[in-house]
Amino acid sequence: MTVLIRLSLLLFFLLLANSASASRTYFFDLPAQPLAATLNSLASTSGTKLIYADEVVRNLQAAPLKGSFTLVQALDQVLNKNRLSYELVDNSMIVINQKKTDPQHLPEITVTSPMGSNSPYNTSYTHPNATTATKTDASVFNTPVTVQTVSKAIMNDQQAINLGSVLQNVSGVSQGFNFGVNANETFQIRGFENDSIFRDGILTPNNNAISLANAQRIEVLKGPAGMLFGRTQPGGLVNVVTKRPQRESYYSLQQQFGSFGTYRTLLDVTGALNKDGTLLYRVNYEHLDSNSFRNFVYDKRDFIAPSLTWHITQNTQLDLDFMYQNRKSTTDSGIPYDLQRSGAIPGKISRSFRGNEPTDFNNSEFYEGDATLTHRINENWKLRGRFSIINSNITTAQTSSNGNTNLIGDLDRGFLRTADHFESKFGTVDLTGHFATGPLKHALLLGTDYYHSTNANRFSPFRSGADGVPTINVFNPVYGFTGFLNDPLGAVNKTRNEWVGVYVQDQISLWDKWQLLLGSRFDHAGFGVSDNPSKQVNEFSPRVALLYRPLSWLGIYANYAHTFNAVNRGTTVSGVLPDPEKSREYEAGLKGEWMDGKLFVNLAFFDLTKTNVQTPLPAPFVNKVAITGEQRSRGIELDLRGQLTDYWNIIATYAYIHTEVLKDSAPLDTVIGSSGAGNTGHRFANVPRNSGSVWTTYDFSGVGVRGFSAGAGVFVASKRAGNIDNSFYMPGYARVDMMLKYQRKIGPSTVTAQFNIQNLLNKEYIASSNGFASFIHQTLPGAPRTFLGSVMVQF
Q: Does an H or E element contain 477, and which?
C-alpha cells in the first residue's frame, strides 16, 4: 500500500510539474475543511488531474486558503500545514514525504504557524492580497489602483497604539487636527480630509478613537472609492482588517508601559470550541491608561471584541462579531503657535500649555454588532450577506481657546457642552463569481448595500468672554473655572444620512499580462437636518483601470474614477442644504515585485479634483458648513515595503503633493470673520508639499545573535499651511524613532521584550492645525521624546 501511495502522489506531481498550469495564478477562497476536499478543489480549479490514496489524507484538516496563488504555492501551504512535504527531483518529479523534524535542531525563535499569513508569529512586512480595492481578495500587484497595506508585524515593531502611528507608514497621508489624544480619527489622504474609517468594509464614525487591539492589518485605498463603498471622501479610504478566529489555539498576553504614565494591556485568544473545528472563537481585549505631555490630558480606554465563526456546512459559514469600547478622555484646543512665531506675543509658549480646563472631558461608549453569512454555491460562485449595527454616545465639555490675545499672552476662551447619540445600520449582499469567456478570465462582483444613520446632537448655549468665560495666560495659566459645567442642554438637533447603492465590477485577466478593471455604481442618497426636507440625489460613480505586465516583476497601470462623495452634511449658516460633493481622478503608475513577492514597490502619479467642497465651521456654528468651491490635488507617491534579505525588513515612503483651491465663489459668512473669497490659489491646511519616511529592522539571528533585533526610522514633513487662509505656516520637521527587541523560546511559549523610543532627538515640532478661518489659531505640538516598553508572552 505504501508503494501505491507514493506512486499515486508521484504521478500527480509529475503531471503538475509538466503542466503549463503550474505557473498560472488562480484565485482560491476555501474554508477550513477536510484536506481531501481542499485538494479536490485545487485540482478542479486548475484543471489538473488528481490522484491520491485515501489513507494519506484521512482525518487531516486543511486551514482556510484565500487569495491568488500558483498551484504549487497553494499545495505548499496546504501540505506543509498537514506535516506533508515534497522534494523536486530533476525538475520533473515531486516526491511527497512526511515532514521530519529533529528536536535537537529546532529554530530558537522562528515559529511556523498553520494560520498562514494571518499567523500572529508572521514577521512579514508585506501582504500580497488586499480586499479593500475590489471587495475581493485580490493580488495587490495585479490590481490597477494604489492600495497600501501596513501589516501587523510593522504595528508590533513600532508599538503602534493609535491609527495615526500606523498611517505614518503610508505615503500621502498627513495628520489632521483631532483635538488631542485622537479624540477624532482625522487624516488627510492625497490632501483631502478623510472623515470616515472603515472596519472590515463597514463605515465607522471617526468621532471615536479606533482600537488596534483586534487589527490584523490596515489597508489604505488611494483615490475615490465611492464606486464600491458609497459615501467616501476622494483622497482615499482607510480600512481596518480585523483578526479572525483560527482553528489552531493561540494565546497572547502583552503589557506595555511608558512615558507620561502610559500602561496598556492586550489579550488575544483564539481556537476551536469543538473537536471537528467547525466552531471557532477569538477574543481581543485592551485596557489603556495614559496621560500626556500636555497639561491635564489623559486617555483611559477599555475595548473588547469577541468573534465567533461557525462552519455550518462545508460551503456555508456564519461569522458573528461584537465590539465594545468605553473611553474617558479630554479635548485639547492646542496653542496659538502662529502668534508666537509672528512676534505678536513675547516669549516661547511651552508645548505642555493647554488652554482648556482640567474639568473638560470627552467621554464615549461605542457598540458594534456584525453578522456575516457566506455561502459557496459551487467552486466558482459565492454569495455573502452582511448586516451591522453601530451605536455610540459621546458627551463633551470644552473650554476652547482661540487666537484673540493681548500682548502679554492672555487668550480668549469660550465654553460649550455637547451630547451626541449616533446610530447606524448597514447591510450588504455581494455575489462573486469566476468564469472564462474564451481567453478572458473574469472575476465578477454584483452587489447592493444600504446605509442609514442618525445623529442626535444636543448642546448648551455657547459661552464667550462676554458671558464670563475668563481668559487664560499662555505663560502663566491659572485653572479652576467651572462656571458653566451645569448649563442645560438644548433641544435635539437630528441629522440623517441614508443611501441605497447598486454596483457591478468585473476584473478581467487576459494571458496573465493584462488586467482590466471595470465598475460602476448607482446611488440614491439623502441627507436631512431635524425636520427640514431631506436632500435627495441620484448619482453614478464609474471606475475604469488597466494594468499591463511586460515583465513578470513589472506592472504598468492607469485608472480613472468619477465619484459621488457625499450628500453634504449640515446646512450653511443661512439654512441652505448644499449640493453633494463630487470628485474625479486620473492616475497612472508602476508596480514592482521582486524576491518571490517579498519586496514590493508602487509609484503613482495622480490628478484629483473635488467640487462643491464643504468646510465645517467652529462653535457656535455647530452642524453648519460653508462651501468653498473647487479644490485640486496633484502629486507623486512612492511606497516600498518588504524584505531586502531574510533578516532585513524595510518600509519607505515619499510623497510630493501640490494642493490648490481652484474656485472659492461661495464666500464664508462674514459673521465668522473671513470673506473666504481670497482663498483661490491657496494650499490646503496640514498638507506638506514633501513628506516621507523610512523604517527598517534587522534580525541579528543572521549573524549568530539569536533573538535580538533592532530598528530605526525617520519621518519627515515639509512646512504646512496652518489654515485655508494661508495666514500662517507650520515649519517642517524630521523625527527619529528606534526599537530594540529580544525574543526567546521558553518551553511552549515565545517571550518578547521590546523597547521603543519615539522622537529620539526630542525634536520640537507642530503636528497639525485646526485649519479653520483666520481668527482661529489652534495648533497641536508633537510629542517630545517618549519611551515605550513591552513584554509579551505567546503560546
A: none
